[in-house]
């Protein structure tokens, strides 16, 4: 027997005992009196912004102004007007010039300020990560207390890709100095529809 086989046999003989995954009772985990207030507090503490609006159509004028200013804007929300379907076919080298992206989220999480987005909502999975400024839209009724509850409501196997996004891109890896926009969007504004 060679050294490789000895190592693999030793690993096979020293496996830990199988333990069932614990069942989490989501009724006894964290609960907030006002999930939107908690969502807003956490999101703003990590560099994002949030605004409560009464109707998604309030963003139509903002999108129109963005497009008229000549900046590269991608809209993935049908309720705001024409969806930029061509973005699905653009390569990273073409998308790197995206200044602003409008994306509808599925669910928000109060405990960490994250928003779940399915790939189909992104149109192109690069869009929310490569744009300079990210605008997310969710409904207030779709904000839950914890990630446990969020996973109960989303179907992670529904599509090939999805992501939780919490605010703008940030890192503090280098000398523990916080840098916003290090790997992705420099700003993230989440509009919550009342």
Automatic annotation (TrEMBL):
Look up the domain of life of the source: Bacteria
Domain LUD residues, every copy: 105-193
Per its UniProt record, what SUPFAM superfamilies does this chain match?
NagB/RpiA/CoA transferase-like (SSF100950)
Which named protein is this?
LUD domain-containing protein
Source organism (scientific name): Flavobacterium plurextorum
């Amino acid at each position: 027997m060679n050294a490789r086989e000895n190592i693999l046999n030793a690993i096979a003989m020293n496996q830990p005992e199988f333990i069932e995954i614990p069942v989490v009772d989501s009724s006894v985990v964290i609960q907030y009196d006002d999930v939107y207030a908690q969502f807003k507090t956490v999101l703003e503490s990590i560099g994002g912004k949030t605004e409560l609006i009464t109707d998604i159509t309030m963003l139509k004028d903002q999108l129109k102004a963005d497009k008229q200013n000549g900046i590269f804007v991608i809209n993935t929300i049908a309720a705001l007007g024409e969806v930029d379907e061509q973005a699905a076919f653009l390569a990273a080298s073409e998308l790197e010039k995206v200044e602003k992206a409008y994306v509808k989220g599925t669910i928000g999480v109060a405990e960490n300020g994250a928003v779940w987005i399915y790939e189909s909502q992104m149109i192109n999975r690069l869009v929310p990560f490569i744009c300079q400024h990210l605008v997310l839209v969710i409904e207030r009724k779709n904000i839950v207390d914890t990630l446990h509850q969020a996973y109960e409501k989303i179907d992670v196997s529904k599509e090939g890709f999805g992501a939780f996004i919490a605010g703008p891109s940030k890192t503090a890896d280098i000398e523990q100095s916080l840098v916003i926009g290090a790997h992705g969007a420099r700003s993230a504004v989440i509009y919550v529809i009342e």
